[in-house]
Amino acid sequence: MARSPQWHPLAWSSAGVVVGIVAVLLTTTITGLVSNPDDLEDGPIVVLSGRDDSIDGQRQKLISQWNQLHPRSPARIVEASPIADATRSEMLARAQSGRGEVDVFNLDVTWTAEFADAGYIRSLDESRVSTSGFLAGPLATCRYGGKLWALPFNTDVGLLYYRSDLLDAPPRTWDELEDKVQEMRARSGNDVDGYAGQLADYEGLTVTALEAIRGAGGSVVDEDGNLVVENQRAAIAAGIERLRVIAPAGIPELDETSSVRLFQSGRALFMRNWPVTVRSLPQGLEGTPAVAFGVAPLPGGAGVLGGQNLAVSADSTRPRAAQALIEFLTGERSQQILFERGGLPATRQVVYFDQAVRDRYPYIATLEEAISSAELRPAQPHYARFSDVFRAAVNGYLRHDAPLPDDLQDQLVDALKGWLAPADDG
């Protein structure tokens, strides 16, 4: 991936004022933060979303708060498949139907350009929508073609979980991480083995591989969005090779949930996973003690930005109400609730300044560091095809000893143009 943009999401000159404001965000009224209810269309607002991974269903609780304030424009969440690829397919099918069944799409950050380019969502008028106060990276995922198409609901970035009972400190470099894996294998006979990243054949493998490549000093695209595979082939191969070496024996088909299980079982030295996992790990597996763990940014700040964006459907018959709902859900108070009670990383700068939050959740400083150095995936309408082709090459290298295709750059160029069907594994 490209070098990280020099974002400084918390560098506010008004930091002292912000700290004083944040302490009361959770108790202040929010009626003044959204549009006048009299200006909104009457009738239900349908939000189509993937699985709610927040703790204790905080997204639905925020919707319930909206409904109490706006009984004439009540919202409801319709959950699509819990599998990301199936969620995207269902959203595309609903958008293509033209029946106006959806008012708000909760899009993965990599789908925003696709829906915008196809005309499935409405652009937002920045003269009427305030974007100040958002973290720069998450807000950048809402732009495509010079326009703003969404607002960031929650952000995400991979973190490094490590066994704090076996390591005094997290590794600072990928070389050090690899050395620790090899040392532990030699000492434990593979009883504690490797780096439990997301290694199954889905978008999780794309992200895990991009992070490993970035950790090897390599890139797939430069900061202008140009593919640079030909110039970076050695570094790309080095990153994927390291991933093969540090992965648990047999390179298991791990997703986020099975990675957690492996780490909780005590059989992995490291795990790459999303921040919401920090809250669930201490629970341990049934019948076994919880593992002692620490959390850190990925070595070298090699994270790749994830998250979800809220966009108004082009077919919505209630666009003003839909936009007001989006502004409510992405507002400062809602964002603090979503992080504090739901465990999802906030998209608002103000949350990261709250000393009470920092005292209660010390890992928020780690989270801020990881987000500020994270890189964006290509904002392209055909990103899904790009990911399929890239992942097929990675999967072939990891599991079938296949070298990177000589024409990988050409394949990825064609994929981004929408010319190339998803490649077969192997």
Structure characterization notes:
The chain is an alpha/beta fold and 426 residues long. It has two domains: 15-156 and 305-367, Periplasmic binding protein-like II (D-Maltodextrin-Binding Protein, domain 2); 157-304 and 378-416, Periplasmic binding protein-like II (D-Maltodextrin-Binding Protein, domain 2), CATH 3.40.190. It has helices at 15-22, 58-69, 84-97, 112-117, 136-140, 174-188, 203-215, 229-246, 256-264, 277-280, 319-329, 332-340, 355-360, 364-373, 383-400, 408-416; strands at residues 45-49, 75-79, 104-108, 143-144, 147-148, 151-157, 159-163, 195-196, 270-273, 293-297, 305-312. Strands 2-1-3-11-6 form a five-stranded mixed beta sheet, sandwiched between helices. A four-stranded mixed beta sheet has the order 8-9-7-10. The radius of gyration is 21 Å and the shape is globular. The chain starts with 14 loop residues before the first helix and ends in a 10-residue tail after the last helix.
Task: Annotate the secondary structure layout.
Elements: H1 15-22, E1 45-49, H2 58-69, E2 75-79, H3 84-97, E3 104-108, H4 112-117, H5 136-140, E4 143-144, E5 147-148, E6 151-157, E7 159-163, H6 174-188, E8 195-196, H7 203-215, H8 229-246, H9 256-264, E9 270-273, H10 277-280, E10 293-297, E11 305-312, H11 319-329, H12 332-340, H13 355-360, H14 364-373, H15 383-400, H16 408-416
Parallel strand pairs: 1-2, 1-3, 8-9
Antiparallel strand pairs: 3-11, 4-5, 6-11, 7-9, 7-10
Helix pairs in contact: 7-8, 7-15, 8-15, 15-16
